[in-house]
Amino acid sequence: MKILSGRSNKGLAELICKQLDTPLTKCALDTFSDGECSVNIEESIRGEHCFVIQSTCSPVNDNLMELLLIIDALKRADALTITAVIPYFGYSRQDRKARPRQPISAKVVANMLAVSGADRIMSMDLHTGQLEGFFDIPTVHLNSKPVFIEHLLKHYSGQELIFVSPDAGSMGRVAKMVKHLTYPVAMIDKRRAGPNQIQSMSLIGDVKDKTAIIFDDIVDTGGTLLKSAKLIKEKGAKNVIAYITHGVFSGKAEEKLFGKDSPFSKIYVSNTIVVPFFNDKLEILDMSFTFTKVINRVLSKGSVSTLFE
After folding, report:
1. Catalytic residue among 75, 190, 230, 238
2. Is position 179 annotated as part of the catalytic site?
3. Domain containing 222: what range?
């Protein structure tokens, strides 16, 4: 087995290697003056099971291109199998034609990964379940539920909790989170005017005097999450806490979510994306052990789904 890493999340790759007790394969990555990526794998990988760890986060296109070139290099160097481990899968929100004459960008990226030579895709908390069907190669879909639930029960089980879905599309995800728990669920009904533009919001459920737990897969500009938290606070919630898998935090997200008027008591995100700032209200939860367990299951041809049941 060989573990390789792009430049988007080398820290996560090193944590996985430490738990697997295997060194990170040497791979020289550089950028030419015109912006082109340069890849040179500095060890023999012939006949090896290779796992390439690379989140396609910002700069999205650079990280995606780097991943494709690493996969191609492994294919040409006669790797036995190539698994693209993409903790955060960029373009996942462009999974349908929202308007006429638009591309389905997530499908385009899925095709590129397969054509470049990947034998398998491994990713965490894809934006929608149907994304797995976009790939013509096996897809291993991890979820953050075990880590988040364990952390939540350890730190907040003594409080009166209510789980809040940030929109109708996330109700399935929240329902899975509380499947074996007894906490009530609320939902925020949103009407959008366009991308990252909320026209109206309303809360369905009673959050008064409770600690509200928001679960979601992505926080991007932070505008929607902030409005959701303010609405929950207005309805009488004692505290608002968010568990978000992928902390994209683009634009002015840091200022919006962690400013002095922030309604949040705490925001937890995973280390699928490197967060470039620090704040007392922000905590990063480690997902490396989940990836390690799944990689071991894949190598031993064991069941992955039982890990999350």
Report:
1. 190
2. no
3. 145-286
